[in-house]
Structures are given as structure tokens and as C-alpha cells.
Amino acid sequence: MGGITVSDRKQFRDLATPEAAREAIASLELTGEPESVPLTEARGRVLAERIDAGRDVPGFDRASMDGYAVRARDTFGADEAEPAVLARVGEVHAGEEPDVSVDPGTCVEISTGAVMPDGADAVVMVERTDPADAVGEGDGEGENDSDGDRIAIRTTVAPGDHVMLAGADIAAGARALGPGTRLTPREIGLLSALGVEEVPVRGRPTVGIVSTGDELVRPGEPLSDDRGEIYDVNSYTIASAVEEAGGSAELYPHVGDDYEEMERLLSRAADECDLVVSSGSTSASAVDVIYRVIERRGELLLHGVAVKPGKPMLVGRLDREDGGESAYVGLPGYPVSALTIFRTFLAPALREAAGLPEPETATVSGRLAVEQRHGEGRLRFLPVGLLEAGGDTETVVGDGYPLVYPVDKGSGATTSLVEADGVVAIDPDTDYLDAGERVEVELFSPDVRPPTLLGVGEDDPALNRLLDGLDRPRYLPVGTREGVRRLRDGLPDVAVTAGPVRRSVEAVDLGGWTREWGLVVPRNNPDDVQGLVDLIERELRFRNRTSDAGLRTALEAEIESLADERGIDREEAIDAIDGYGLESRAFESPARAVAGGDADVGLGLRATATELELGFVPIGIQEVRVRANPERTEKPSVARLESALAADDHLLGLDGFDSTGGS
Amino acid sequence: MGGITVSDRKQFRDLATPEAAREAIASLELTGEPESVPLTEARGRVLAERIDAGRDVPGFDRASMDGYAVRARDTFGADEAEPAVLARVGEVHAGEEPDVSVDPGTCVEISTGAVMPDGADAVVMVERTDPADAVGEGDGEGENDSDGDRIAIRTTVAPGDHVMLAGADIAAGARALGPGTRLTPREIGLLSALGVEEVPVRGRPTVGIVSTGDELVRPGEPLSDDRGEIYDVNSYTIASAVEEAGGSAELYPHVGDDYEEMERLLSRAADECDLVVSSGSTSASAVDVIYRVIERRGELLLHGVAVKPGKPMLVGRLDREDGGESAYVGLPGYPVSALTIFRTFLAPALREAAGLPEPETATVSGRLAVEQRHGEGRLRFLPVGLLEAGGDTETVVGDGYPLVYPVDKGSGATTSLVEADGVVAIDPDTDYLDAGERVEVELFSPDVRPPTLLGVGEDDPALNRLLDGLDRPRYLPVGTREGVRRLRDGLPDVAVTAGPVRRSVEAVDLGGWTREWGLVVPRNNPDDVQGLVDLIERELRFRNRTSDAGLRTALEAEIESLADERGIDREEAIDAIDGYGLESRAFESPARAVAGGDADVGLGLRATATELELGFVPIGIQEVRVRANPERTEKPSVARLESALAADDHLLGLDGFDSTGGS
Questions:
Q1: What's the CATH architecture for B363-449?
Q2: With an 8 Å Cβ cutoff, are B93 and A283 in contact?
């Protein structure tokens, strides 16, 4: 493929409506072939046909109590005071064929579950009987009297008492379970009672996943940053979403934008699957190639839908070698967009084909935390995060609905997948949603649960340990300044700050610690770095933190006072540091660059240097504080964070970390 | 083992409270060893440890648009009217290493996802560019000017525009996912972005299931009714409930009440599993044996709990060969009781050990359909059925809560497993619950959904087909008379009657059909049966239906008129029929007895005879009617049933069936 020009690109000018997209997908045949699975693997599957009882359950008249099998008429009139005394002529246990019958005046000892002996029509519970010796001479008159004990029956029973007749539970030929029944443990129980070993179930729709993009590499394989390779995200995300929706996913090898190769791969996937889904590439050329393959080797039903994100969606059919057809859907390339479109349009169709109901936990009601303006004239799926209001009614935030807030990272970010919990569908006619408005969030998965705690601010190893001890926290490492700003805006439960906070914020201090920071250097400090001066005066490759990091602020303050001290210009000092502009977003990254030989000096913590077995040149001590939204201090997750802070376990073994207690 | 006497039996006099049972179970160690699973199998599992990013994502500065990589300062001042013209010196696609750098005055064509070439710090979207020829002479001044095209840049970009910097998505060393995170498709996506191929997850607790009872046979194996064998229900029910709760189930061979064998099996299961569950036998002797094994080979923490059902529950520990311990729980023998106790006490403990949250769909609120009296002084789990109120708000029954009604079959019936949907816990202090009261139903499984339709009455092959076409119907084949009684009491949506209805009921007739009934005989009628007279006058083995069946009522009426005709006594005629008292509960059962050689003549339908390729001697035509609860005719499921009745598809190919239309 040559250069990309505007005229080469598919313009999707005639966008289909979302309803048309749903209809196009509904027109596809996704249902798999019915199959037979062993009973032990049938849970969660859906019956393909009605199951009638193949036999009576129980298959015989069955004692339902431990006691004595009798002829009911032999007990007529018996009671506590005047028992009937019967001759015990034998016994029968569960799993045994009776070797004796019950004649008038006799009884047979019987266990729960045992076959009723011939002649008997009722069971007397053992609790209503006694050995006859205990009551003196009885009036038993059975002919086998001499063979066994004599039993006093202290109650009158009617025919059928404590007996389950053959077929009383379910009779041969009766309808047991209908087609479409989802098999949960209880249905498995009924099927086992019927002796069903192989269960006819609906086939799972098979979904072939074709990823486009020369830059994609499977997890586990080596990656070249120089060639701009990245790990394949969509294939795995969509494959597990397919399985979650009741389908069976098959991953196909990656393919670039070569027409022949794409055609071969799509044809093979079509031959082998009920549905072929392509995703991965965000490049227009690959989409163009797919488009051409579908048009030539099948039928394109729809290209482009008036939704955001998801505009480049394709729906069509692919011919199979056997003369049949496979369904085809092309998803957008960005992970959040791909999952949104899958969840909205494809998952319901797959569940329908698999015979599974829409999960009740697929959506959650919440209240919008901030107003939302919209004016795009097309359906918008706004990625949003959720925040649990709090478990306890007394400490609940607002009216108990979770808070819903937009997640505004670019949809190309894979972290959006976990920072957003789902999407809010905003219809083309809505141009304003007020803060506090009730909205329905379509969760990315029915198993997604709102986080219990939302924290923002600095990143720090002790903080990571604190978070590990909480249940479903969400933490956005946006740095101190941005963290304080967001806390002031009222959304997060807590903000974590490092170093001095310039703008004041109304907050409740939950506790904190100090951390020693400085320059991370290779083991044994081979360049003999003594301090910041060496960075300025010598040729050392430095690795910095981003300007939102508390360590960066501390570094800048040190450089400023160093410049003052030496009477040089601050900017000049900074320009003299090679790599000052090479910024890392995580506290460990500069040290990793040092460990990997990509830098001589990195901005970082003593604890990191110790952990990575690197050298360390101390510069200062910085205070880290956890500050709570004043309205959320009673929220259970915030209270748990406060106790964890007080316990100080998160500081154990972290070199250069120290407790400061509450402020 | 010898005879059972009262003194031999464990009496469970000191019953533990349900809270003590919960505590005893909470004291057991159920957690499995952490393990590592491939990413493709990680969905639904729970992270055993925190995952930090092992690398920057992306690993390089990445173009996030198709367009031209530029030095931002070369575009300063450019706009639609006065474009900057740059020399295009090369191109770079996703997955390629750039072979060119961007010097002042030049640009490189770039695809989304490609590596930014050296020198470039921003991308201009292709939409904001044109080939420079189209604008006449530009002012490009790059030294490679002569090598390529000239591109007009019609906008000003800032450094970083449309570029995702290395590590901007997630930086090496940053906290990606916390321990305890449940892996849904989105987390799978993030893990794949990080290149994580093997995921450290919490181990599933392994649960060994030991079934006690000599009478138990595995589904798929032959069953002897003579020996009183039945298929094992509890093992399969509990095994799938274990899997549903996040555990891994292992079935052990059945064991009788032999001490040595039981000890060997329980010890083996303890060595191999985190938890051993026994269930199956309802016989006191087997429970006694288990009790003795646990006391000798471990520790019994609790025997007997003050709940109904579930009194005989055992909780303890079993020693392992390696010096460790395995947890032990003994469940009651009846399937519904076993599942109730599992669901209430064990499933939450297993989920906790597996790190899974309590499912939100584990309980459902409903309104009690009938009053409930209770006075047992202990916690009662009442098995109940649910009935969906109706999907549409306009046609909803009551206030939209499903109806809850007790299922009063003995808990020994396996059909209770599917006729009840869960249990209502009634506290020892509650002795009365009014009809209409709000109750919480603890569902047998989070996947259980209330039926959309509750039907009662006659059983019939055409009806079975109608039911097959509905979504989640529940039908109780209680016969015509009982069906009418229940419809009058107001619970069911519809009752199906066969033959004349003696007691009037206010109902809306939805439609019906007629069916031909008579005597089913072997193929070609070898005994030359001509009619009922042969049953009375000859030695033929007959198989009847139960007295609740419409066919039985019709048969009785025929016998009565035959007796009148011939001037004989009705009772005498009945006594003369060999097997008149052998009653089957399903319409097909007598015919199956004929097919199996167990009877010479069976009461049944022409359609059944035709289907089983048997002979048939007609006696009469019987009308079957479907009658709706007058308050439910607008309910969507009832309306669907009515349309299905009108369509008559359910009668196709059923020999002797005829349409009658509405009444």
C-alpha cells in the first residue's frame, strides 16, 4: 500500500443509525450447532430440547423413613397405650433387594430409601415403635413369630404413609425440563435423578477474532519498541467478552494490510466460525483492505454507524467454502471503543444465540457527578467511572446511588479500560445533562462492581501497599497539584499529596509518612555522583519525573536553591542537565532506566534504589499526606483507609520511609 | 451394622444456633494455593497479587493520528489561508522502524500507531494537509526538498499534539491492578497491553464430594429397581454448586456405611482437597459412621444445627497425612435440604475463599401469595416458588414484585429442586406472615430467574409443545380437579383441564383442542382387545392413570355406563380389572409399560400409541381447555400463550388431536 491521501480513504459519509446496526446484526445467523455435553460440564449451558423423564423416579415404592414396613390394616386402632405387636420377620436396607415379604401380623425393619417388601403398604417411623419385650406380652400373630423379635407399633398408619410410590417424584414420559432452560445446579440435580449422563445443549456461537495491524504482538512474545510494536489488546479483550456472552472465541494470527493475506485469513475464519470479528488496527488502510475483502468475498450490509465511538463499524457476511455463510462484524480499533461497540451491539446478539438472558447486573443506576454538555447530533457512548456511595445507610453519600463521572482519557489509552466502568448512552437530542441527574451506566461487564474508594494524587510505594489492603479501590496517579484540584472539585474520596501543597483545600488529614528522595545511580555509584551539582557540571544521562510528580517539584526547589547558592541562572542549570526533559510517569521508572543502562542517574526514592539493588545519593525528605474529602470521612472505605494508616504496616521494610502519625 | 434402635441413633439434642454454624464454618481454612493461569483462561479468576506495569505502554512515542510527523515550531502561524509547506522526506507505518528523521522544514508521513521519527514532536492530522502542488509554490526550505513531495500544512500544532508519549498510558513500575481484582474482559485487556501471559490468581478451593449410600448409582450406569437403586442426585447438584461458588469439585466413589471404607475414603479426600463435603444418605447409620470417622480422624466442631431443613449438619476437620488439616462439612441427605444448607452456609465461605463477591442476583424480593404460619421455634428455610408479575408496567400484576408461594412437596422429591426457586428464611420468633408481605427469597443459584408463567392442571403432549415455545414457563401437572382448585385460589396464571369440569371457576377460556383416548395395546393388538369389556372379562394386565388425571375420570365414566348397560356393579367391574390400582402419573407411562412388556393394556392417547408404534383401541374424544386467571389475561406470557393456541402449531402431526378454536 502506498501513501495515504484524503481521496483514498473511505469516508463513511452515509452513516447508518444505531437501530439499523442492531437490525443488521439481528439479521445475521449466529447460532451454533446443538451439541451434547457430559452432565458434569453442563452447568451454565442451555438445553437444546425438552427433556422428558426416561424412567420413573423413584423406580420402586420407597420407604421415606427409618422404621418398620407393615400392612397398614395391621396397625388400625394402635396407639401409645394399646400398641399393635407385630412379628419382625426380617430387615431391608437401602440398596438391597428384599428377601422377605410382609404377611398379616408381621413387619420388616426398613431403612429410609429401601424397597418396600411385598405385602407392605406403609412404614411406621422407628420413633413410634419399641421392642415388644419392653411392653410385656403382645398380641402378635404372624406365622414367622418364632423367627424374630416382636415389635410394638404405637400408632395407626394409613396405606401409603411414609412411602414414596414409584414415579411419584416424576413419572416416565413426563416433561421434566423445557428447551431453553439454563442449567443451574438444581437442574443438574434433576437431570442426574433421571440418569441423564449426556445433556443436549445449544451450541455456543463460535467467534473467530482477526486482529489487523503489523505492529501487534501476542503477550508472552518479545516486543521491539524501535519497530513500534505493541501487545495486542483487542483480541484478548474481545475474546474474553465473547466467552462472557456465552460464545466460544478463537484467536487467529495477526494480519497486516495485505489484501491476499487478509482474504485468506478471513475466508479461513469464516469456514471455521459462526461469526468473524475483526479489530485491532486503527489505521485507515487496514480497514480499507477488510472492506474490499468483505465486498468481494461476501456482502457488506452496513459500513459506518452514527455513534461515538464506533463510527467505523462494519457489518456483513462472508461466504464459506461449503456454500454457507458466516457473519462478520468489524469493530473500531481503540480498546474502549471496541469493547463499547461489542457490549452494545454484539454481546446481546451472542447471548440470544446462546440462549442466555441479558444479565441483570449489566447496567447500574447512578447520579452524574458533574454536568455534561453534548452537541454532536449522534448517539454518544460516554465512558464513565463509578464510585460507590458507601455501604452503610447512615454514612451513605447522597441518596445511595453511585456517583458517575466521565473518564476523559483518549480512547486509545488501555488504562481507560479499567478507569472507566462502562458507558452512558447520550442520545443525539440530549445536549445537556445536569449534575445529580440519574443516568443508567451500561457496564463493560456484568461482573464489574463500582470501586469502594476513589483516590487521586501522588504515586508512592507505601501508598500502593495501603491500596492493596483495601477492597476495590481505584487510584488515579495524577500527581499532587492535580489531585488537590480534583479533591477541591469534590469527586474523589481522598487525595494523596507529596511535599508542600500550594493551593489550600478543605480536607481532613487522615495521616501520612515521610520518604527519602534523591538520585538513583547504578550499584556502587560507578560515576561517583555526589549530588545535583554533578548533573549540572558533568555529562551524565539523567531521567526525570513528569512535572505533576511531587518528586519533580522537590527537585525543582533544590535546583533553584542550588542556583541561588552558586549565583547561576535556574534555567541555565536545567539546560545543563542532559535528559531533564525525559520524564517518567511512575516513581520507579527513572530507577528502572538506570537499572537497564538507559540512564546514569534517575530521580527517585531510597526505597526503590534498595529494592532494585541500585546505588542512592540522598537529597531530601519529603512528606506524603492522605487527605480526605470532608464529606466522606464516615464512608466505610475511608474509615478503613484511616485505620490502615494508623497501623503503619504499609511502611514495614520500606527503606527511607518513616511514620509521622496524624497531623 | 445391625438393627436400628432408638438408643443407637445420634440424637442431636444440643443443636447449635445458625450463627454458631456460620462461625464454625468461618473457622475452617478453605483457601486454595495461588496458581498461575494463561491469560486466555484468566477471566472470572481473582488476582492473587498486585500487578505492576513491567514496561512502559506504549514503549515509544506513538502517533495517534494518520498524518504527518513534524517539528511543531515549523507549523507556527500556519492556517487554512497561509499553510506552512514542508518537504515530505519519507513515511513510517505502524510496526516499522523509522528510517528517516525530521529536520527543520521537513515532515514524514505517518500512520496511527507508528513510531515518531527522530526530530518530530507532533503530528498534523492528514485532514489538515494537502499536497503542496494544489496550492502552488510553497515556502518549504528543507534540504531534502528535492527528494519528495511538498506538503501544505494548514494548521498550527503544539509539541505533543496527536502523540502519545512513551509510558503515557501506563509507565513501567506503576501499579496496574490490585490483589483481589476480579478479572473481567477489561482487566484482561490491560494485562494483555502489559504483555502478561501468565496471570497469578487465587487458587479455587478444592472440594471433595463423598456420597454415602449403597443405593446410589452414577448417571449413565444401569439401575436396578429391584435392589432399590437410585441415581445420585446430591453429588452432581453440590458439585455444580461448588463450581458456581468459585470452587473446584472432585467426585469420590460412593461409599456405604462400612467404617473402614468410609475412613479410607474420607482420609483420601482430606489429603487431596481443601474441603470434604459428604452428602447423599438419609439413613441414620451412615451418618453415625461418618460421625465416628470425624471424631477419630479429626475434630468435630459442631453436630446438628437448629434449622429446618438441615438439622443433621456436621462441621469439623479431618487430619491429613502431611500433618495438615482439611475442612469437613456434612450436608443433609435430601436434595433440597442439601442445596439449601450449601447455599446458606457453605457457598458464602467458598466465595470468600475464592475471593469472589456475593452475587447481586443471589436474592430476589417478592410478595407472599398466601399467608404462612410457623411455630417451630427454630430458623426455617421455607422452599418457595416465584412467579414473575409481568414484564410490562401496564399489565403488571400487583406492584411488580414477583409472587412467592410455598412449595410443599416433601424435600425428598428431586422435582422440588426445580419447582422451588429458593428459600425464605423464617426466623424462630416469627409465627405468622401475612399474604402480600414482602419477603426476600434466597435463590438456589444466582442464575435462577422467576418463571414468566405458572400453569397447573392436566398433562398432555400438545400442551408440552405449547410450553416448549414459551420463555421460562413452569407447569405443575396436578390434574384437572386440583388445577381448577388452584386457579380458584388465585395463584396460577392458567389451568389446563381435560374433560368436564365439575366445580365452576371464574376463568377466561384461551382456547383448546380435543384428543382421542382409549386403550394402548402392543403392536398389531396380539390379544385382540376390542374395548373395556375385555379388561373386565379377560385376564389382561392393565396399567391405569392416577385419579387426578382427566383420562382416569373419562375411564371411570365409561366403566360406569358400561356397568349400567350390562347391569353389573361398578365396583365389581373395577375389581375385575387386573392392575386397575397400578396408577401412573404421566400420560405416556401406561403406554411405556405396554411397550416394555409390563402390561397388556394401558390407558392412554392415540397420539402416544402412534408415537411409540403401539396398537390402539379407541374409546372416546376428550376436550382439553386452557383457562386463564381473569386478572392475568393481559400478562405478556398469557397473551403469548393465547396467540400460540390460536396458531394451532402444537397440534401438527399429533394423531387423534383436533383443533376446537376458542369456546
A1: Beta Barrel (2.40)
A2: yes
At CB < 8 A and 24+ separation, what contacts does B593-600 make? B593/B543, B594/B520, B594/B521, B594/B522, B594/B543, B595/B522, B598/B541, B598/B543, B599/B541, B599/B542, B599/B543, B600/B521, B600/B522, B600/B527, B600/B529, B600/B540, B600/B541, B600/B542
Identity of the residue in B5, B184, B214 whose CB atom sits nearest the CB atom of A95: B214
CA closest to A125 among chain B residues? B6
Per-residue pLDDT, A79: 94
Q: Which residues on B lie below 8 Å from A39 (Cβ)?
A: 219, 236
Pull the grid cell for residue B4: 436400628
Return the residue in A110, A133, A175 with the most chain B beta carbons within 10 A, the one to mutate for interface testing. A175
Q: Residue B361's pLDDT is what?
A: 86
B326 touches chain A (CB under 8 A): no
Buried b (16+ CB within 10 A) or exposed e, A326-346: bbbbbbbbbbbbbbbbbbbbb
Query: Out of A175-184, A207-216, A435-444, which region has the weakest mean confidence (pLDDT)?
Result: A207-216
Cα–Cα distance for residue pair B208/B202, rounded to 1 Å: 18
CB contact under 8 A, B229 and A170: no
Residue B9 has pLDDT above 80, yes or no: no
- d(CA A418, nearest CA chain B) in Å: 6
Report DSSP letters for B68-106, one per residue.
EEE-GGGGTT--SSS-EEEEEEEEE-TTS-------TTE
Give the fold, CATH level 3, of B473-659: D-Maltodextrin-Binding Protein; domain 2 (3.40.190)
Residue B10 has pLDDT above 60, yes or no: no
Structural domain spans, chain B: 18-31+204-354, 35-58+168-201, 62-131+149-164, 363-449, 473-659
Closest Cβ opposite residue A414 in set B169, B216, B238: B169
Percentage with pLDDT > 70 across chain B: 92
Query: What predicted TM-score, i.e. pTM, was given to this entire model?
Result: 0.90
Contacts of B223 in chain A (CB under 8 A): 55, 59, 195
**Chain A neighbors of B226, CB-CB under 8 A:** 60, 97, 115
Judged against a pLDDT cut of 60, whether residue A131 lies above it is answered with yes
Q: How many CB pairs under 8 A join A and B?
A: 420
- What's phi and psi for B490, nearest 5 deg? 95, -5
Query: What is B35-58+168-201's CATH number, 3.90.180.10, 3.90.105.10, 3.10.580.10, 3.40.30.10?
Result: 3.90.105.10
pLDDT (average), residues B167-187: 94
Domain at B18-31+204-354, CATH class? alpha beta
Q: How confident is the model at residue B503 (pLDDT cuts 50, 70, 90)?
A: confident
Type of residue found at B55: R
CB atoms within 10 A of CB A221: 11
Kindly report, residue by residue over A216-273, the tens digit of the pLDDT.
Answer: 999 999 999 999 999 999 999 999 999 999 999 999 998 877 899 999 999 999 999 9
Give contacts of A471 with chain B, Cβ < 8 Å. Answer: 180
In chain B, positions 222-251, which contact chain A (CB-CB < 8 Å)? 223-241, 243-244, 251
B581 interface with A at CB cutoff 8 Å: no
**In this complex, is the C-beta atom of B4 within 8 Å of any C-beta atom belonging to chain A?**
yes
* Count of Cβ atoms closer than 10 Å to residue B344 Cβ: 19
Cell of B545: 392413570
Q: Which residues of A touch B468 (CB under 8 A)?
A: 50, 178-179
Q: Average pLDDT, stretch A90-94? A: 93
Per-window interface: B 600-619 vs A, CB < 8 A: none
CATH class of A62-131+149-164: mainly beta
- pLDDT of B393 strictly over 70: no
Q: Is the pLDDT of residue A2 over 80?
A: no
